[in-house]
């Protein structure tokens, strides 16, 4: 009997210790809150231990006097953006390749994502073996950069996509199984190493490379599901996308860009709940900046670019050669088809994820690409609020992350503070006043951000 009387007292003492040591209470006062689903109007958001604990009208008034109050009246609060498809540690200046996969470069990229308001980033393949340790280190320290999730090295085709030469993979980390048994072994290895999802490349890149065989991807998908892992596939064309969905694929990681998506595929995706990440910006990035040299004067783009890239894109001879390049007409057509297919899937209520392939190549500009993608989604018919829901709530749901993507009690305090209403004009997502991650102030506006 005596023991039962003592126990509650003991617990009370123990639980009091952490709160007195580091549980500062933060109150964001008076911002317009878009919670990832809808505009809530003006709210106080209360944060403790890196988590949102209250989202109320005038909640702050009832709190203890030593709560730290931040006046966000006139500002707009949205959840930190979540990218389902990006890459890290793969570029430096105008170059790309696995020789850049260093701790410094991974952190450099994640700091840039974070400064641009993307607080969770999925590195969808081509990660070096150091990925796992880096992820754990970075995810414990918000000041190092955006939260990192990823597919480890990913699984490609022997001598095929991702083409090692083209991608600069001198110590190619990608698993390239030739048969079903090796595909299952590759998935088991990656599951054991701790990937967040499995990435496949199923693309012959216009007939130039061997395609991953159906036997291999079906075995990989089946094995991944045995390990409770989702599978995301790089595709470009309708035919492999269709067979992958029939084979149980969870996530189409790029838009279909060769043909219109037909009603049969739409129906199959709807029934299976397949996710679709359009990455419209990926092809556009090959000509967009060469076409708009005046954008280099805008800080929002300028500050995202390494000096060498800025110099290259400022050179008219380079821009002319870029726009006259052999792939540009196809890239424009791919963007038009991608947008049309996104309109089709939007009307059908297919689950859409958020990603850009930023970081894979220098023109896939980390941070800028995500804000451009939001704009492109509105061109496909989504309202600004719907595009934001995709880039927050839905992108987190794709990853199976229940602790982020919305502004609600119990969730991580990963928040983007904006100067103007993004639900009125999607370009207002670029007017960043501050970024908070895990309840810590990790970035001010982009005017203060400079790439290393
Ligand atoms: Zn990619």
How would you summarize the topology of this molecule?
Layout: H1 2-22, E1 25-34, E2 39-48, E3 51-56, E4 68-71, E5 76-79, E6 81-86, E7 91-92, E8 95-96, H2 103-115, E9 118-123, H3 131-140, E10 147-150, H4 180-193, E11 198-201, H5 214-226, E12 231-234, H6 238-246, E13 251-252, H7 263-272, E14 275-276, H8 281-284, H9 288-291, H10 299-302, H11 307-313, H12 316-323, H13 328-348, E15 351-352, E16 355-358, H14 368-379, H15 384-398, E17 415-418, E18 432-437, E19 440-443
Parallel strand pairs: 1-4, 1-5, 6-9, 6-16, 9-10, 11-12, 12-13, 13-14, 14-15
Antiparallel strand pairs: 1-2, 2-3, 5-17, 7-8, 17-18, 18-19
Helix pairs in contact: 4-5, 14-15
The protein binds zinc ion (ZN).
């Amino acid at each position: 009997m005596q023991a039962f009387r003592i126990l509650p007292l003991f617990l009370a003492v123990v639980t009091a210790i952490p709160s007195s040591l580091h549980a500062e209470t933060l109150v964001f006062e008076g911002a317009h809150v878009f919670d990832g689903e809808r505009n809530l109007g003006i709210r106080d958001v209360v944060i403790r231990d890196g988590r949102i604990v209250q989202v109320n009208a005038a909640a702050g008034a009832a709190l203890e006097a030593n709560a730290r109050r931040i006046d966000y009246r006139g500002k707009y609060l949205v959840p930190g953006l979540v990218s389902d498809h990006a890459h890290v540690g793969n570029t430096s200046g105008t170059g790309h390749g696995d020789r850049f996969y260093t701790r410094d470069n991974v952190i450099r990229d994640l700091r840039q994502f974070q400064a641009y308001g993307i607080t969770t980033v999925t590195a969808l393949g081509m990660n070096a073996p150091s990925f796992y340790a880096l992820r754990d280190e970075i995810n414990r320290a918000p000041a190092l950069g955006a939260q990192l999730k990823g597919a480890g090295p990913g699984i490609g085709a022997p001598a095929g996509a991702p083409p090692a030469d083209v991608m600069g993979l001198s110590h190619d980390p990608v698993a390239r199984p030739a048969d079903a048994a090796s595909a299952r072994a590759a998935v088991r290895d990656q599951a054991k190493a701790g990937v967040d999802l499995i990435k496949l490349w199923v693309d012959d890149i216009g007939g130039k490379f061997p395609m991953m065989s159906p036997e291999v991807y079906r075995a990989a998908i089946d094995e991944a599901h045995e390990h409770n892992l989702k599978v995301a596939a790089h595709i470009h064309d309708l035919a492999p996308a269709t067979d992958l969905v029939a084979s149980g694929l969870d996530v189409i990681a790029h838009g279909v860009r060769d043909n219109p998506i037909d009603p049969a595929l739409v129906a199959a995706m709807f029934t299976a709940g397949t996710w679709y990440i359009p990455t419209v910006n990926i092809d556009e990035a090959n000509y967009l900046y060469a076409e708009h040299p005046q954008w280099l004067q805008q800080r929002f783009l300028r500050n995202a670019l390494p000096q060498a890239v800025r110099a290259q894109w400022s050179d008219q001879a380079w821009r002319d050669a870029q726009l006259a390049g052999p792939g540009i007409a196809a890239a424009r057509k791919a963007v038009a088809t991608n947008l049309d297919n996104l309109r089709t899937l939007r009307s059908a209520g297919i689950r859409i994820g958020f990603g850009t392939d930023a970081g894979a190549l220098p023109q896939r500009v980390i941070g800028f690409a995500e804000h451009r993608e939001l704009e492109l989604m509105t061109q496909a018919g989504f309202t600004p609020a719907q595009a934001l829901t995709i880039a927050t709530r839905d992108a987190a749901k794709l990853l199976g992350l229940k602790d982020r993507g919305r502004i609600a009690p119990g969730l991580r305090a990963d928040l983007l503070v904006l100067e103007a209403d993004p639900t009125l004009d999607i370009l207002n997502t670029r007017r960043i006043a501050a970024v908070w991650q895990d309840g810590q102030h990790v970035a001010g506006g982009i005017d203060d951000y400079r790439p290393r």
